[in-house]
Amino acid sequence: MKSFQAHLLFFAVKIILSLYAFASSAANSPFTPLIINHTTHNYKGGNQNWAVAQGDNDIIYIGNDYGLLSYDARNWKLHPLPNNLSVKSILVDSSTGEERIYVGSFEEFGFFTHNKSNTLKYHSLTHLIKNYSLYNDEVWTINKSGNLVFFQTFSSYFIFDEKENSITSHTPFPAPLYFFNVINTIYAQFIDSGFNYFDGKNFKALLSREQLGDDNVIAAIPLNEDILLITSKKGIYRYSPAKKSVT
Question: Which end of the chain is more exposed for a tag (fewer CB within 10 A), N or C?
């Protein structure tokens, strides 16, 4: 009996040591995440995808040539726009309590909401535009600050006031190149011009083009209390709002 118990104990210790060795080896091995390639055959959309965002319910939204795609980790759904054209930009916002998926397209922009049957319903906003006719305007970025939503094209931008349910249109010169939202402040790079910020009413100059190596800012990323400004060709600059300096 003692011999059997000793044998059983030896066997148990051997298993524990083997599992420990396996766990140690696994911990030291690089983690390789599972990668699944979804083709047009899977999601029944166009070849090109332009934008991606994730909702509070973890659903992935993708701007596709055929409209807005949604993916819940199992099922793909296509939600076309009234113009049946591509979605070039997406912003998911739940700050008002109801999730809105803002989208931008060619001469069209608006938002999707979930109805009672949890189906996405589209609400166009272009009918709110006054004293401006959309012509070749394609919305490439959507950003929000407070109750204001900014729809930016390469020739104009539109500000949608959620509280007033109204839109103001703007055609600045130089024209806008990129808009960014960093810590709830809207920044703008205008074509071949300086770097600007929105003061609540208008865009105002923040950095001259010379301060950024005569280049365009193509991305803005928060870093602690500062902002990293990534330019097209001249590298990365660090802007300090507190010191109002750039290095």
Answer: N
Residue 215 token pair: 């280049």
62, 52 contact by CB (below 8 A) = yes
Name the token pair of 151. Answer: 């729809």
Q: Residues 188, 228: contact at Cβ < 8 Å? A: no
HEC profile for the chain? Answer: CHHHHHHHHHHHHHHHHHHHHHHHHHHHCCCCCCCCCCCHHHHCCCCCEEEEEECCCCCEEEEECCEEEEECCCCEEEECCCCCCCCCEEEEECCCCCCEEEEEEECEEEEEEECCCCCEEEEECHHHCCCCCCCCCECCEEEEECCEEEEECCCCEEEEECCCCEEEEECCCCCEEEEEEECCEEEEEECCCCEEEECCCCEEEEECCHHHCCCCEEEEEEECCEEEEEECCCCEEEEECCCCEEC
C-alpha closest to that of 91 among 155, 38, 26, 160: 160
pLDDT tens for each residue of the chain, 247 residues long: 444 444 444 444 444 545 455 555 555 667 777 888 898 888 889 999 999 999 988 999 999 999 999 999 899 999 999 999 999 999 999 988 889 999 999 999 999 999 888 899 999 999 999 989 999 999 999 999 999 999 999 999 999 999 999 999 999 999 999 999 998 999 999 999 999 999 999 999 999 999 999 999 999 999 999 999 999 999 999 999 988 899 9
First to last CA, the chain: 78
* Total-model pTM: 0.85
